[in-house]
Amino acid sequence: MKNEPQSVVLKTREKWELILEGLVTIGLLLLLNFAVIILIDQAINSNQGLIDGIYQIKQAVTIGPWHLWSWQRIFFIALAIFDIIVVYWRLIRRYHQMQMRHIIDELHFIASGHLDHRVNLKVSGYLNQVIDSINALVDSTVNSMVEERKIEASKDELITNVSHDIRTPLTSIMGYLGLIENGQYENQDEILRYNHIAFEKTKQMKSLVEDLFEFTKVQQTHAKLQVTTFDLVSMLEQLTADFELEAQKHQILIEVDVVQRPIMMTADSGKLVRVFSNLIVNAFKYGNEATKITLSAHQEKTDVVISVANDGRRIPQKDLENIFERFYRVEGSRSAETGGSGLGLAIARSIVKLHNGEIYATSEENETAFNIILPLNTDQEEN
Question: What class of enzyme is it (predicted)?
């Protein structure tokens, strides 16, 4: 909760500065007024015609014994108003300078390392804009520093996770090749078995390296999209055909459920194929007890909504909140059987973001769905 702004409390020295400023200004104005009065009086007295004109005007506005008009009176009133305005302007100007001095002191305090502090002074006019700009700049700097720390921690985490996921199969490869190298086998079949295990571990490492390369590529801010126009429905049908054998191997039915045909969109078809492929592979690996994978799509105004759903076991809510984080796996899913780099969903999210889209997961008792919202026309210049 933001604290109420505090009024600027002047120091004793500053109060005396204001008093001295006022006294000096009043003294100078009195000298100026005296000089002006003398000059005007001499000018009037040296001009008889001007004296007569003033007398006639004075007689015209006289009622009985009262003179309703006197040039001296009007002149004195005008000088007094002018003097008050000048004194007020000078004091306000000096007061604003003092306020600015306090703002600068606050800024120096923040610059000395107190980044959690904000300028919280009650001022007006342009000084209030100055304070807002300073606080906004400090907030932006703090957010940048926090983001930089997150990026640095994220890099360290990436290195740690990659090192762990590469070291595990690499240790197995070296172990089995070491057995062959040292002749610790009984027959040719055992050599072939050791070699096959090492080969499978090598493929696992290759898959991890490829996913890591793809992830770092789509994470780059200058990544460009190869935009083309294509039919989304045809793409989804082609994907189901490509994964038909894999689906039969897992005893899962894979199908496309689309009412509207065609759905023409402009995007990077190659990258979107990678997104949908990752979601389908994820369903094969982690859709426990699933019997069906359904790819659906429909148009909503200028967007298209795509869903890759399966009827497997429900994913806990706490996992849904983190499932798109790199190297994150649902509890119990990290195993030699499922394998995987843990980057598939992170890559999917990054590609969707490149298309200015949104991806999220929902999981109910009978269906887990990965939903994607994409603009029908992706502006290449925005990427």
Answer: transferase
